[in-house]
Amino acid sequence: MSYSQMLSCNICPRNCGIDRTQQKGICGVTDKLRINLATRHLGEEPCFSGTRGSGTIFFSGCNLHCIYCQNYEISTLCWGKDISAEELIRLMLKLQKEGAHNINLVTPTHFTLQIKDAIIQAKEKGLTIPVLWNSSAYEKVETLQTLNGLVDIYMPDLKYAHQVYAQKYSSAPDYPAVAISAIKEMYSQVGLLTLDEKGIAQKGLLIRMLVLPNKLAGCKENLRTLADELGTELTLSLMGQYYPAGKAKNCKELSRGISETEYYDVVDTAIEIGLTNLYTQEISSSDIWTPDFSPTPQEINPLSEFNPQSELTQ
Length: 314
Fold this sequence. Notes:
disordered C terminus
């Protein structure tokens, strides 16, 4: 791949064909790297946050635009600051110097070409901690293949099992098929999640599922699909932190948090299927898990830490 792809952008499944050197794509951003926050995040899964935090870089824009996105201000409104590739490399190295267990790239898909080159250069300049690709799984297999050998850990969401809800809430009816294909490619590159002697992830795949109210995500169906396609030794994070963010307050079926019954029905199904490498979570219908994003960040400061008051547990 080359940056010429951005002249008629086909990096992601949207295939919008927009010249991102001149205007914004469906992802909401141009070809200029744009981020909102870089921080040592202590609220990820324990195998990523550890004791010193996950070196998390939040990119602005997104190719999916879920109406309930908990990062709505940066994914859809694109709050953030344009930075150069050199600045991104320096951020990665600084997060490593400050003790981060990994470099956690959040919503990176639409910047894959630039980030790929930044990872290569950062590794040449001394980056040794694992690189974590934290995405919606709405990605092209061909694009993911360019990251083979560069990304150590993949952490995709698996958002929907049904086309109708993928269309209604993310305008992406092809999401279920695209996401499963993308996750299978990720698995082929990095395999099962592996931890070091301190319980910190070094390589592999962890799949997140956000349980939505009224069974709208189709989590139980997706659990069965994953077990059939990739086996029951997968590591999963079943998330109970849904709250009506973004435009969800205006959508009746998404306007409330989830119940304990809804959440533990998914957990019980995973266990019944044999998917026992699970991270589970206290149910929370608040924004405690969401960092405080600034509309126009003046300084990207990796010395700060984001630490919500509850954790995922395995």
